[in-house]
Design a protein that fits this description.
The protein has 260 residues and is α/β, with parallel strands linked by helices. It has one domain: 3-Layer(aba) Sandwich (Rossmann fold), CATH 3.40.50.150. The chain is 34% helix and 17% strand. Strands 5-4-3-6-7-9-8 form a 7-stranded mixed beta sheet. The protein has a two-stranded antiparallel sheet with strand order 1-2. Strand 3, helix 5 and strand 4 form a beta-alpha-beta unit. The protein is globular. The mean pLDDT is 92.
Length: 260
């Protein structure tokens, strides 16, 4: 409603009792009606989504940004958070499966001393990511790369963050209409939902510096990840505002698995 009326997102309290003109009511009603009838996510209707108080451009070429990893990047300080794992000389970050580039942008904002590579296999996604890199004036610090997962990235990195596809085939068939408007390639990950995760775990160690860390969001695939990779000493990260399904592994832990 606020977007339809051209008001700031924090204007609701101040404007709540404002009497709307007939034209304003018609404009707002038309947008809400379109949301109901098409089941398009609101972000596609407004071409805008917010993550950790940062605005991003989105359209149907990318999924709507909602990764819990953004909270870890913003709230990096304190025991058990990313800063407690990262070395003090962290310089290079990879946002793998970047989508609209939101995690890359947030990482660059949270760590002003780092450079970020933002990689995706989708040309469409990279085009949207470029819009957001330009929007936040981070072109000097964020480089966009086309890569099938880790195949063409340019490590080594101190930190790799990734919100990959992790929806299994059964869940894909049951998705509500809103999610069906999103690019399937950004969601679907094979029969068990772990195709992308397997490839990342196999190749991440070679892309990390000594002491580097890998942070991956697997959502409702967490139980299957725990079962299929029970030999890995995952750290499952906690979130102040709820959520889960995000694991952390160090390069050394990944290498130990390959050597076992």
């Amino acid at each position: 409603m606020l977007w339809a009326l051209g008001m700031d997102l924090d204007a609701l309290e101040a404007k709540a009792k404002q009497v709307l003109s007939d034209d304003e009511q018609a404009t707002a009603t038309a947008l809400v009606t379109k949301r109901i009838e098409t089941r398009l996510p609101a972000a596609y209707l407004t071409r805008e989504a917010w993550l950790q108080n940062v605005p991003f451009y989105v359209d149907e070429r990318v999924i709507v940004p909602r990764s819990f990893i953004a909270e870890l990047l913003v709230d990096g300080e304190g025991e058990g958070t990313l800063d407690s794992w990262l070395s003090t000389d962290t310089h290079r970050v990879l946002d793998l499966c970047t989508g609209n580039g939101s995690l890359a942008v947030i990482a660059a904002m949270a760590y002003p001393e780092v450079t970020v590579d933002a990689a995706d296999i989708s040309d469409d996604a990279l085009a949207v990511a470029q819009i957001n890199v330009d929007k936040h004036k981070l072109g000097q610090r964020i480089t966009l790369l086309k890569s099938d997962l880790l195949a063409d990235v340019r490590g080594p990195y101190d930190l790799i963050v990734c919100n990959p596809p992790y929806v299994n085939s059964g869940s894909m068939e049951r998705l509500p209409p809103e999610y069906r408007h999103e690019p399937a390639m950004a969601l679907a990950a094979g029969t068990d939902g772990l195709d992308a995760v397997r490839a990342i775990l196999e190749g991440a160690a070679r892309c990390l510096r000594a002491g580097g860390i890998l942070v991956v969001e697997v959502g409702n695939s967490e139980r299957r990840v725990r079962q299929q990779f029970s030999q890995l000493p995952f750290t499952w990260l906690q979130f102040a505002r709820g959520g889960g399904g995000v694991f952390l592994l160090t390069r050394e832990q990944l290498q130990a698995r390959k050597g076992s």
